[in-house]
Amino acid sequence: MADCILEQLKSQPAWLLVFLSLGFLSILKFSLSILKWVYVNFLRPGKNLKNYGSWALITGPTDGIGKAFAFQLARKGLNLVLVGRNPDKLKDVSESIKSKYGSTQIKNVVVDFSGDLDDGVSRIKEVIQGLDVGVLINNVGVSYPYARFLHEVDDKLLSDLIKVNVEGTTKVTQAVLPGMVKRKKGAIVNIGSGAAIVIPSDPLYSVYAATKAYVDQFSRCLYVEYKKSGIDVQCQVPLYVATKMASIRRSSFFVPSTDGYARAALRWIGYEPRCTPYWPHSLLWALASSLPESVIDAWRLKFCLGIRKRGQLKDSRKKE
């Protein structure tokens, strides 16, 4: 039978054979990509994060994704350096973690990333001196209170977006890296955003999206710079997560809870330089990639204009 098929193929014109070969290769490539997606999302084991070091440093750990990361890392047996601006919230989170994971050592560092950042980074350096900080989660970030055009963004918000999202992430990374380089191991996770990677534009959130694009490129460059030094650098790209920043209270299939996201996120640390850990988000990413950019731009603009209108109504009610 194989000989018969082979003879029939030989009798076909060359252009048809080329067409069939390209079709077969396309099907093979698609099948392999599906198998890889299944493996990395459901079968690939997470790395033992304690192999990087016994301490993890997390910025923005008092709410949302950062808080969930803190609990999940403590569950994995890591000690924590929690960096946030509110000492009372830091204390509450620390006590909650210790009540659940009593053996966890925790050090709190009060840093206002929108304030005197150099002084704050100096305090971080003092606290981590002598600690084998093996995992860094750069989670701290700010966004708009609601969608607005660039000319409506006030100077304080503009400054905070750049200082917290760009300068804060950069300087904390720079403070932690020397210890990792010395020990020849470490994992750095920078929290990016689908606003900068998944969709072609994020109108009315332009500065926020641009700062997250910086985080993505910054992460990729560091991944290449430090890979041979035993340091894994990764930019995680979540889409919507049920957080205060996203103004979403309830989780759903496509919008995970912060704990759901953090559990998925830990399994990806140490692998690809860019990823979206929560697997339903990857389905939305694939959908967005298949649509014309003009369609996504138009949909996103309409969606954000609706957010802007609701935000303006809330502001006007507060003033009354």
TrEMBL record:
The chain crosses the membrane at residues 15-40. GO terms for cellular component: endoplasmic reticulum. GO terms for molecular function: ketoreductase activity. It comes from the Eukaryota. Keywords: Membrane, Oxidoreductase, Transmembrane, Transmembrane helix. InterPro entries: NAD(P)-bd_dom_sf, SDR_fam, VLCFA-Steroid_DH. The keyword Oxidoreductase applies. Belongs to the short-chain dehydrogenases/reductases (SDR) family. This is Very-long-chain 3-oxoacyl-CoA reductase 1. It comes from Sesamum indicum (Oriental sesame).
